[in-house]
């Protein structure tokens, strides 16, 4: 689940002894409306004394600092299971530990969007709405609170400035002579989600509204890019970007920003978010329906969705789901914003539904060979 290996973006992690009448009321509540009820939640969580997480490597989205911050703030121990697990592993961990209240049973999960609806349908998730619920976009949450978007990346351009002087600022720029033999996808669009979503984003920039239309227009754009000699059919990982083989990489912004930092200016990588076709890929949080520590799980959610938690994710280059609302309210420190591409472009981000993405993926996988004819390796 590190910044360079977790690629499930594209879509969006009660049980336990009732501690008191107050705690029972909290467990049934959909949100916290008062300081008094938050105090009750904190007390109930501290009585449980532990939170069990899974699939949260410390170098992913700032989770190392977030976990330490939670422990320090509330004095609750965090039991970390399998940091490198994938979303499917997290769901299986819930299933395998339904009757287990021990340390191998996760309280909370952080998974790709597609896993939310399916886990809810299987009865694996506990509904809970955090106090900042209204600032989570409707398209990125289950209406009943079983799962909700936590952070997202957007498709962006990473430019090796030692090879390309002028970084592109929009999708239409990529077809110009400036970017001959320069533009590459991070993966094969027939199989890799981030590459599929880059094609989708190009379609949105071309005026599509989503789904099949975005797929068709995106394929037309990449056909043009390939026919004009601008597209490079090489997987734009860090090495070919640094070597200049793929000097303009299309990838999630959080991956590109991590790549930029890892290269330490040799070469200089400029990351730009396009002016149009800003497409977001969302992860989601949820609480296990079998959580051994349900109150600690709820408190963890309150922490993550507070201003403090949201800024913690942003420091790890993953845009928190409340980014637009917090930005509008001036709640994001300038020093954090200074490390990101132009903030105004993020305000244009669209969050395609799971149905939209599925429809687009099918068309792109089926028609890439016949329409674009470039075998990405």
Structural account:
The protein has 377 residues and is an alpha+beta fold. It has 2 domains: 21-152 and 281-337, D-Maltodextrin-Binding Protein, domain 2 (3-Layer(aba) Sandwich); 153-279 and 346-371, D-Maltodextrin-Binding Protein, domain 2, CATH 3.40.190.10. It is built from 15 helices and 10 strands. It has helices at 21-28, 35-48, 63-74, 87-96, 115-121, 193-205, 211-227, 238-243, 253-263, 294-304, 307-315, 323-328, 334-337, 343-346, 354-371, and strands at 50-54, 77-81, 108-112, 125-126, 148-160, 183-185, 248-252, 269-272, 280-288, 319-320. The strands form 2 sheets. Strands 3, 4, 5, 6, 7, 8, 9 and 10 form an 8-stranded mixed β-sheet that branches. The chain has a two-stranded parallel sheet with strand order 1-2. The longest helix has 18 residues, at 354-371. The protein is globular, with a radius of gyration of 21 Å. The two termini are 22 Å apart. The relative contact order is 0.19. Residues 1-33 form the signal peptide. Keywords: Signal. It holds the Pfam family SBP_bac_6.
Low-confidence stretches: 1-34
CATH class of the largest domain: Alpha Beta
Radius of gyration: 21 Å
Q: What coarse outline follows from CA principal-axis ratios?
A: globular
Helix/strand order: HHEHEHEHEEEHHHEHEEHHEHHHH
The CATH superfamily of the largest domain appears as Periplasmic binding protein-like II
Q: pLDDT average, as an integer?
A: 89
Helix content range: 25-40%
Content of β-strand:
5-15%
The end-to-end span amounts to 22 Å
CATH topology of the largest domain: D-Maltodextrin-Binding Protein, domain 2
Query: With helices defined by DSSP (H or I, 4 residues minimum), what is the helix count?
Result: 15
Q: How would you sum up the major sheet? A: 8 strands, mixed
Number of domains: 2
The secondary structure category is alpha+beta
Signal peptide: 1-33
Pfam family, one: SBP_bac_6
Protein name: Iron ABC transporter substrate-binding protein
Organism: Manganibacter manganicus
């Amino acid at each position: 689940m590190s910044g360079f290996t977790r690629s499930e973006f594209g879509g969006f992690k009660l049980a336990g002894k009732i501690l008191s009448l107050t705690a029972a009321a909290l467990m049934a509540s959909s949100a916290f409306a008062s300081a008094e009820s938050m105090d009750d939640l904190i007390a109930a969580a501290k009585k449980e004394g532990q939170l069990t997480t899974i699939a949260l490597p410390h170098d992913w989205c700032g989770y190392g600092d977030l976990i330490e911050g939670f422990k320090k703030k509330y004095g609750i121990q965090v039991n970390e299971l399998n940091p490198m697990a994938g979303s499917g592993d997290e769901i299986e961990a819930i299933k395998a530990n339904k009757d287990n209240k021990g340390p191998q049973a996760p309280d909370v999960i952080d998974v790709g969007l597609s896993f939310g609806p399916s886990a809810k349908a299987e009865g694996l998730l506990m509904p809970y709405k955090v106090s900042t619920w209204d600032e989570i976009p409707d398209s990125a949450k289950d209406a009943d609170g079983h799962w909700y978007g936590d952070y997202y990346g957007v498709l962006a351009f990473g430019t090796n400035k030692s090879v390309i002087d002028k970084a592109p600022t929009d999708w239409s720029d990529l077809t110009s002579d400036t970017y001959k033999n320069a533009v590459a996808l991070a993966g094969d669009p027939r199989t890799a989600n981030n590459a599929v979503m880059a094609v989708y984003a190009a379609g949105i920039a071309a005026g599509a509204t989503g789904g099949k239309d975005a797929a068709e227009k995106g394929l037309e754009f990449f056909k043009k890019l390939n026919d004009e000699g601008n597209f490079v059919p090489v997987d734009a990982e860090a090495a070919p970007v640094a070597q200049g083989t793929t000097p303009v990489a299309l990838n999630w912004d959080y991956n590109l920003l991590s790549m930029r930092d890892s290269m330490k200016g040799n070469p200089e990588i400029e990351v730009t978010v396009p002016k149009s076709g800003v497409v977001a890929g969302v992860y989601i949080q949820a609480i296990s329906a079998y959580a051994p520590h349900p109150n600690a799980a709820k408190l963890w959610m309150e922490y993550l969705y507070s201003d403090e938690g949201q800024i913690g994710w942003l420091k790890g280059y993953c845009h928190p789901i409340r980014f637009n609302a917090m930005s509008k309210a001036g709640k994001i420190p300038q020093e954090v914003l200074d490390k990101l591409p132009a903030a105004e472009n993020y305000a244009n981000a669209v969050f395609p539904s799971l149905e939209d993405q599925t429809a687009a993926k099918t068309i792109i996988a089926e028609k890439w060979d016949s329409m674009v004819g470039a075998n990405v390796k």
